[in-house]
Amino acid sequence: MRIVIQRVKRASVSIEGRIESAIQQGMMLLLGVGYADTQEDIAWLVKKTVNLRIFDDNEGVMNLSVKDIDGSILVVSQFTLMASCKKGNRPSYIHAASPDVSVPLYEAFCKQLSEALGKPVLTGIFGADMQVELVNDGPVTIVIDSKDK
């Protein structure tokens, strides 16, 4: 699994011009699921995400987690994160999991993330044509791949 974490002031996802989900301060996560991903990848990424210290403390040092600041999380599925651009100019998605594999893993990730955060995690709709808007705070953007532990 691969995630892009963005520290945000606010973020939203819209589908067909209607806001599906929106958060204020917290994290916007783009999640790519690979064909070889398992429950172990989910557990590791969930723990890493909720404990990642990327929010400022009183001294302006990134020393607080999303849990520490009572922040929110918005998760959007994005199979294109699994793209390989090694050959040619058209990305290959052979490492991305098919929907029958990725949907259950995406749902399990969101459920476990919500449990670890202690409140609901908002999402887009898997496979939908979504428009994502956000105000990146910092900017702070982190990429984490569960295969690079």
Automatic annotation (TrEMBL):
GO cellular component, one term: cytoplasm
Keywords from the named record: Cytoplasm, Hydrolase, RNA-binding, tRNA-binding
EC number: 3.1.1.96, 3.1.1.-
InterPro entries with a match to the protein in the record: Daa-tRNA_deacyls_DTD, DTD-like_sf
Locations listed in the record: Cytoplasm
Motif Gly-cisPro motif, important for rejection of L-amino acids mapped to chain: 138-139
Entry's Gene Ontology molecular function annotations: D-tyrosyl-tRNA(Tyr) deacylase activity; Gly-tRNA(Ala) deacylase activity; Ser(Gly)-tRNA(Ala) hydrolase activity; tRNA binding
Family, per entry: Belongs to the DTD family.
Record's protein name: D-aminoacyl-tRNA deacylase
